[in-house]
Amino acid sequence: MSALFEPLTLRSLTIPNRVWMAPMCQYSADDRGPGLGTANDWHFSHLAARAVGGTGLILTEATAVSPEGRISPGDLGIWNDGQAEAFGRITGFLKEHGSVPGIQLAHAGRKASTDRTWRGGHPLRPEDGGWQPLGPSPLAFSETHPVPAELTQQQIAETVAAFADAARRALAAGFQVAEVHGAHGYLIGEFLSPHSNRRTDHYGGSYENRTRFAIEVVDAVRAVWPEELPVFFRISATDWLDENPEEERTGWTVDDTVRFAGDLGEHGVDLLDVSSGGNAPRVRIPTGPGYQVPFAERVRSETSLPVGAVGEITEARQAEKIVADGQADAVLLGRELLRNPYFAWQAARELGAEAAVPDPYHRAY
Question: Catalytic one among 27, 186, 203, 342?
């Protein structure tokens, strides 16, 4: 029996296997007019292909809870009902073909208003379609990024409410998992880290204050999300600043992540999706196969919170070992699923397991 193809039940939701699709921005939504931020045929075909390929859980790209929360003009959003309705066709197809549809709810914070990655990802000026980024403190991400406007306490409360409203719409659109995006140097992660959060009010300074905004968002989402369905939280386990001491800066650490995982569990989070980095430029990250798995493993071994592992997981037996050895409860594949939508099928065959195959494709298996 393959551990990778054992179902996983969180609350009352059973996910058919442990091969999951990580959120990956496509930068392909309409960037103006009434269709701003709305899923289109590209998003349908992109997500549907992974469901046909047997992926157990499919998470959308970072989906903005407000217009200014987009990373780029081409990002998806779910701040209005029309955007939610467009997701219905996608979630219905994913369920029909055995996958669980999940949505990542996000706000880009000080890293908002940048161009699409294949155009360089540079910050956009207002005359080029950009907008004013927001952040916990007036600190630019890098020398080329604009200084964000510091969020007032009223704006913080409005952003918390925007996450709750987005979760309501996501539920109406048919999603079964809601993931709060707290990683990669976007708004929630910016509040968590002392590198980007220099506030002096009750949202800055101490660990308790820096985590306050994240907990408020989780509480707001959990309050509107059904008790029987799970909520995930994606985190950068480290800013990699402590691992780069010559930078002479202090950031969020793995110790902080382990402590915070316990807090998130107490507030109704069901799984921690463990990534890293993104909050500081120019840090050296020693990448390689499964390089972030030890972070997930530590959270899993020191807390009671289930975890997902991500980062250069590309082979069936590698993924099997991660789950079978108890390093993580599931693996989230990114670029490998872009290269190969049928990874789950092929992994199942290699491991002697079974994955769902649509009837029209049975002749191939």
Answer: 186
